[in-house]
Amino acid sequence: MIKENWLKKGYVEETVDKTLDLKKEIAQLCKEKNAIILGHYYQSDEIQEIAHFIGDSLALAQWAAKTDADIIVMCGVHFMGETAKILCPKKKVLIPDLNAGCSLADSCPAEEFAEFVKAHPDHTVISYVNTSAAVKAVTDVVVTSTNAKQVVESFPKDEKIIFGPDRNLGNYINSITGRDMLLWDGACHVHEKFSIEKIIEIKKQYPNAAILVHPECKGTVAKLADCIGSTAGLLKYAIASDKKDFIVATESGILYEMRNKCPEKNFIPAPPEDSGCACNECGFMRLNTLEKLYLTLKYEWPEVAVAPEIAEKAIKPIQKMLEISAKARL
Ligand code: CIZ
Ligand code: SF4
Asked: How much is the pTM?
């Protein structure tokens, strides 16, 4: 009964017994089942609070590759669950909401990308981790925003490269490496929405603020940045900086860890265009809730599955990324 309705909006939250101390129940279930919760920086504060490990997708993949837990609960989006499953085919990989997709991954349908790759047989294929397992299966090396520069630079200067699916990240990497990679025309609906005008307005209120921008944002927003980087990179910059105020142009979930690590500093979420809200949240990431996480652990469902013939191909570019990152100590 619960499983049939699980993915219906609000059902689980209304069904779970309100008198339960969910955080305690979740911790107990993890202990009983030898389960680990991996949480992405874009999850809600309450999920980040109880996850055993929080990080960006590179760190989550590195963690999944080395854990001895029997069950991995991926509190993130579907491609992150797939990456964990590909790295740990014998483990049970669960995700609290199977509908937690990604508009960037969706902007790169596997069949179309395979055609694009086929049309450029002399090119090496580098894909951002925000892709389906089927796209990774036709990829030579996977990257995240933390290691994209290092991975691209691990190839000779004259290497012909296809980079997909994020055009903004691709343009940014081209600009800092002097490459001319052929780009897939994809984007993330959250990161493309930040408003230059509103960031400039906030900067007037906080003239000494540093502007932190994720490379999935448009180049026009990136031009305003004091630091362009992945969530892990922006966090590192904020910790090391002697500034007090930071305007943050990425999914606002990262503010949880920024405030945790730097309680004395002031983090302001950059607002999106045409919206009354003061922050920018990824609706897919936020589909995971404490209630769903509790039931996921209880029923060991929904499970992430990757077809073995896809996983067999997709593991190679993921492992290559992990090897290059280990050498660069990322
Ligand atoms: O790689 C990730 O985890 C994402 C989606 C963003 C970032 O820059 O960390
Ligand atoms: Fe995908 Fe954008 Fe959400 Fe990240 S913020 S998971 S790139 S839709």
From this structure: 0.95
Q: In b/e form, how buried is each residue of 163-201, taking b as 16+ CB within 10 angstroms?
A: bbbbbbbbbbbbeebebebebbebbbebbbbbbbebbee
The pair of three-digit structure tokens given for residue 19, joined into one six-digit string: 């008198």
CA distance 166 to 215: 9
Given a contact cutoff of 8 angstroms between Cβ atoms, the answer to whether 324 and 148 are in contact is: no
Distance (Å, rounded) from C-alpha 70 to C-alpha 30? 10
**CA 32–ligand 2 middle distance (angstroms):** 32
Residue 115, pLDDT score: 98
Q: Is 284 in the pocket of ligand 2 (CB under 6 A)?
A: yes
pLDDT tens track for 247-278: 999 999 999 999 999 999 999 999 988 766 65
Considering every ligand atom, which ligand is closest to the CA of 79? Answer: 2
Asked if the model's pLDDT at residue 9 lies above 90, the reply is no
- Is the Cβ atom of 190 under 6 angstroms away from ligand 2? yes
